[in-house]
Design brief:
This protein has two domains: 113 residues, Aspartate Aminotransferase, domain 1; 234 residues, Aspartate Aminotransferase, domain 2 (3-Layer(aba) Sandwich). Helices cover 46% and strands 14% of the residues. It contains 15 helices and 13 strands. Strands 2-10-9-8-7-3-4 form a seven-stranded mixed β-sheet, sandwiched between helices. Strands 1-12 form a two-stranded parallel ribbon. Strands 5-6 form a two-stranded antiparallel ribbon. The N and C termini lie far apart (56 Å). Bound molecules: (2S)-2-hydroxybutanedioic acid (LMR). Its EC number is 2.6.1.-.
Length: 398
């Protein structure tokens, strides 16, 4: 008897599938501005020189391929936490946290969601809009999904009052998912003053902040991008942080990230650790070796760290430059709608108000691939393709 006859067909992934469609497109002018990956000035993927050096170093060490501990590589975790919090954060004195290496940022979100659902929480509130995968990841954890207003599509800016209003109405004990920096897809973050207000409000309404940070170093700089999370931690929130090394080390396919649970009671750490370890063991058993080894090799070496920071800064500078050129070229074309907003965005993405049918026209008429929410990966622009992109956008916006 056939068992698999009634399986329903699900839609393809709204971001990752675009790169497949792109690779099949025969148009020689095709441009892929979909997934948030960095491209060089001549349009290629980039492997950091610091990463290559770390790989050579690792190869020469003839390391074993044994299983890792369930929580992952301890040196990697120490280095990563210091990168996120700064080495002198009070968190390290109090030791009220437990961190585990994960399979990229996505499995950190999934693991955190499962942990929360199993132990305390029922509902998670996600910004509207957000990375499309957030909803899907948290649905799989059993948490109920709700949203809070984040971006005002009429005024083209952060809807801070709407966000605060929604927070006031969230049931006690709910989780609020926050983007640590470089909000995906809008590129607009609260100011530091607004983060402080959010911290107060979240505490007052007894919510659990869950930060997703995937772009540290791509916004303002490594330190400023971590400031909101450092602040929340110093304010004593019990919270979770999912971190991805895909972008800031260019280790996309290595799948390396971590999850940290911060608690108010140190005595809870062994229980928290035990719960996380059982969830990991029942899922992927223990995390992969190589990505964590690369990150820890770089962050354990002052020379490689310096080289990596310079490489990261150069990438950030190129994206900032491309954003400026993009805005200037749109202005020349007479497009002034939302440009002021585009100027204020940070990170890889640009959100300039293209609707679903305009996105489809970009793809069909110009072979330019962006997700249906109109998000543009500014890091995919370069001096050779920007004019073509701007002309195409102008044409579909007419
Ligand atoms: C993106 O938002 O484009 C990236 O985070 C890639 C992904 O996994 O969706």
């Amino acid at each position: 008897m056939p068992f698999f006859n009634n399986i329903s067909l699900l839609p393809p992934d709204p971001i990752l599938n675009l790169s497949i469609d792109f690779s099949l497109d025969q148009n020689p002018q095709k441009i892929n501005l979909s997934a948030g990956t960095y491209k060089t000035a001549d349009g290629h993927s980039l492997v950091f020189t610091s990463v290559r050096k770390a790989e050579i170093d690792l190869l020469q060490k003839h390391l074993n391929k044994d299983y890792q501990p369930i929580e992952g590589n301890s040196v990697f975790l120490k280095n990563s936490l210091e990168l996120l919090f700064g080495s002198d954060h009070a968190l390290f004195t109090n030791k009220k946290f437990f961190a585990v290496q994960t399979v990229g940022g996505t499995s950190a979100l999934r693991l955190g969601g499962e942990f929360l659902n199993k132990l305390t929480c029922q509902k998670i509130f996600i910004s509207q809009p957000s990375w499309p995968n957030h909803k899907q990841v948290f649905e799989k954890t059993g948490l109920k999904i709700d949203s809070y207003p984040y971006f005002d599509f009429n005024a083209y800016k952060l809807n801070f009052s709407g966000m605060c209003q929604a927070i006031r109405q969230m049931p006690t004990g709910s989780v609020i998912l926050l983007h640590g920096c470089c909000h995906n897809p809008s590129g607009v973050d609260p100011t530091f003053e607004q983060w402080k207000e959010l911290s107060q409000l979240i505490k007052k309404h007894e919510l659990i902040p869950f930060f997703d940070i995937a772009y540290q170093g791509f916004g303002k700089d490594l330190e400023l991008d971590a400031q909101p999370i450092r602040y929340f931690a110093s304010e004593g929130h019990e919270m979770l942080i999912a971190y991805s090394f895909s972008k800031n080390f260019g280790l996309y396919g290595e799948r390396v990230g971590f999850l940290t649970v911060v608690t108010s009671q140190q005595k809870q750490i062994p229980s928290i650790a035990s719960q996380l370890k059982v969830l990991i063991r029942a899922n992927y058993s223990n995390p992969p070796l190589q990505g964590a080894r690369i990150v820890s090799t770089i962050l354990s070496s002052p020379e490689l760290t310096e080289e990596w920071k310079i490489e990261l800064k150069n990438m950030r500078d190129r994206v900032v430059e491309m954003r400026k050129t993009f805005i200037a070229s749109l202005l020349v074309k007479g497009e002034d709608k939302n440009l002021n907003y585009l100027q204020q965005q940070i990170g890889l993405f640009g959100f300039c108000g293209l609707n679903y049918s305009q996105v489809n026209r970009l793809r069909k008429e110009f072979a330019i691939y962006i997700p249906s929410d109109g998000r543009i990966n500014i890091a995919g622009l370069n001096t050779q393709n920007i004019e073509y992109v701007v002309n195409a956008i102008s044409s579909v916006m007419e």
